[in-house]
Amino acid sequence: MNPLSLFNMPNWQAYCQKIIHLSTFKRQIDCLRLDLIHPIVSGNKPLKLLGWLECFQQSSYQGLLSFGGAYSNHLHALAFVGKELNIPVTLIVRAYADQPLTPTLQDCQHWGAKVIFADKQSYARRYEANYQAQLAREYQALVIGEGGEATEQHGALGEKGCLGLAEIAQHYDQVWLAVGSGTTALGLAKGLADRQASTKIVGVNAVADHGQQAQNWQRLMSPSVDWQLIDDAHLGGFAKTTPELLDLMAIYEQYQLPLEPVYSGKLLLAFEKSLPQLAAEKVLLIHGGGLQGRRGYASLFEPAMV
Ligand SMILES: *Cc1c(COP(=O)(O)O)cnc(C)c1O
Predict the structure, then answer these.
(1) Measured in angstroms, how far is the CA atom of residue 12 from the centroid of ligand 1?
(2) 257, 17 Cβ separation under 8 angstroms
(3) Could you tell me which of 99, 103, 117, 222 has the fewest CB atoms within 10 Å of its CB?
(4) CA of 139 to the centre of ligand 1 (A)
(5) pTM attached to this predicted model
(6) Numbers of helices and strands, H then E, in the chain
(7) Could you give the CA distance from residue 17 to residue 172 in angstroms, rounded to a whole number?
């Protein structure tokens, strides 16, 4: 089965929504709603899996394995794809077995994925090539980097499915997106470079990584592409929230743009703050999906959101 046929691979234009709420700024501000591309596995995660699935199909591996947190959109998408394509999936999860399963992990198990709980120490080894090779042998599985990111053995396969985002982004002065592993942005940059587009990439880092991602991008970003990484919009760290963020999410909810606090909420907050000085006429914001992860935060939004 062609993995592409799993997702109704979008006519991107159909997923662009004008952000009316920001119309006083007299610019064209559109949002690419990747959260709408599939009813269950939405967002950029299925795109990042495409290259890995291609590799799997050409390999002799028996299954797929990857790493993530208990609310991980990546693991959620991977488990769903495994179920649909009948591929055994193993998930190494940074969580403890004696704690209640999150809705995300409940779905994954329900779809047949094997959940392995890793304590902080073992989870910290997820980038090590040796550890990955050991897991690959043990589970006869293709090891996918955390969040779909590159591994030493197989390279940046997660970027492949993201190149096509440039098809729509090339028509804008700037494209803004939230950054976790950086895979989506790096793939988008390749797509823009292929099209010789002058669109600038602005990433809003959701991780407090002390400049690590900025260094990666210096090294890996296509040299012809103009980019900026905003490193001070994480609100204290990954998945940390503030009342300001939750208020903003509640406002966008009213304008039919559902956000989650980890990525898209921080993207919009950083974007709004930059708007008065923004030097761009046409801007595309990429909504990376991830609304499934919001279930675990439900109590945070009350009473602002119902
Ligand atoms: C994973 C994710 C991102 C970040 O994508 P990367 O390719 O890891 O940088 C952004 N938004 C959402 C909703 C995500 O789930």
Answers:
(1) 18
(2) yes
(3) 99
(4) 26
(5) 0.94
(6) 11, 10
(7) 14
